[in-house]
Structure formats: C-alpha cells, structure tokens
C-alpha cells in the first residue's frame, strides 16, 4: 500500500467513506494503516463535486488541491470490471511525492454540480435522515426523487442501495454501472483516457 511505502516522507492517505454502516467500515479498515473517516451526510461529495466512487483528490501540505477528482483505485479488486489498475495511479503518486512531478491532467477544472445534482443530493440527505427517523415511506420517496434527478451519480444512486436494503454489489449495481458506461461514464473530474 502507498501509505506504508511513502509514509516516512510525510505522505498520508486519508480515506473518506460516504457511508453510515460504521461496523462494516471498521471491518474493512482493520487492514489499513491510514485514517478512515465517515461522512454519512456526504458533505465531501458536495464540496468537491464528487459524483462517483472511488474518487481521489491530491492535496498538498498547504491544503491546496494539486490534482482534482480522479477515478482511481487503491486495489485491483474491481480491475476486471472497470479495466482500471491501481499501479498506474500509484506511479503518478510516487512521482509527485518523490520528485514533485505533477501529471499534466492536474490542471483539469472540475465542473460544478448542476442544479439537478445539487437537488438530488438534498433529496438524498432528506431520505437518509427520514430513514434514520424510521420514516421509510418518506425516505423512499426522497431516494426515488434523488435517483430521478441524478440517475448516474454513484454517490446518490449506489449509496442509496444498502440504505434501501439492496446489495451494493448486486445486479442493481451492475445495471447502474452498465448504464453509466453506456452514457460515456459521465464524471465530475479528470476524464479517463483509458479503461
């Protein structure tokens, strides 16, 4: 893992889970050597216009974004499905940390969320709060409205799956991923030139 490899240089990975299942996150975090934060209300996705997970943002010691949103992976768990391998990104990080080399795509400007995407996130937040309060009909209505407004936004649609009792790695996820790919993989961040 990059944290173990580069930690002595001052480099730190910080994972942020946009999830509320803390027990599942604790289990996943047992094997990692970096902080894992929980953002159940998805504040980070709103602040950084994140529309898919995983997304990686490089931030330097002065809290400046060096490389904006990029769909990168820390493992090859999903490489067979996505065609994206972690080592390509790891090499970019090593060059940045070791030699201050910043990739040319770091100058990419991330588009702001659209009005529909902002509204979808508000509906998602209302749904999550209604669900926590035991108002399942209200929650379902807001989850549906969020998905209608941002049907290919994983931080809305996929994030709702476990909250609604669906398997976030089941057929519903693969249907979402297929529609996402068919639509050209729309993403608020650096566009992929491969995979």
Task: Name its key features.
195 residues, mainly alpha, Glutaredoxin, 2 domains, two-stranded parallel ribbon, two-stranded antiparallel ribbon
Describe the overall structure.
With 195 residues, the protein is mainly alpha-helical. The protein has 2 domains: 2-107, Glutaredoxin, CATH 3.40.30; 115-182. The protein is 45% helix and 8% strand. It has 9 helices and 4 strands, in the order αβαβαββαααααα. The strands form 2 sheets. A two-stranded parallel sheet has the order 1-2. A two-stranded antiparallel ribbon has the order 3-4. A hairpin with a 5-residue loop joins strand 3 (56-59) and strand 4. Helix 6 (115-132) runs antiparallel to helix 7 (136-149). It is globular, with a radius of gyration of 17 Å. The protein starts with a helix and ends in a 13-residue tail after the last helix. 22% of the residues are buried.
């Amino acid at each position: 893992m990059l944290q173990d490899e580069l930690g002595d240089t001052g480099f730190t990975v910080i994972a942020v889970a946009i999830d509320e299942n803390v027990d599942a996150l604790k289990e996943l975090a047992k094997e990692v050597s970096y902080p894992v934060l929980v953002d159940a209300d998805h504040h980070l996705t709103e602040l950084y216009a994140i529309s898919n997970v995983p997304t990686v943002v490089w931030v330097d010691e002065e809290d400046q974004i060096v490389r904006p949103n990029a769909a990168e992976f820390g493992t090859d768990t999903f490489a067979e499905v996505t065609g994206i391998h972690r080592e390509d990104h790891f090499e970019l990080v090593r060059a940045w940390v070791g030699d201050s080399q910043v990739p040319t795509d770091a100058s990419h400007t991330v588009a702001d969320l659209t009005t529909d995407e902002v509204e979808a996130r508000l509906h998602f937040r209302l749904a999550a709060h209604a669900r926590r309060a035991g108002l399942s009909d209200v929650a379902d209505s807001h989850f549906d409205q969020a998905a209608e407004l941002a049907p290919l936004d994983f931080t809305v649609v996929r994030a709702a799956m476990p909250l609604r009792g669906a398997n976030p790695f089941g057929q519903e996820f693969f249907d979402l991923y297929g529609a996402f790919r068919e639509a050209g993989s729309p993403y608020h961040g650096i566009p992929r030139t491969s995979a």
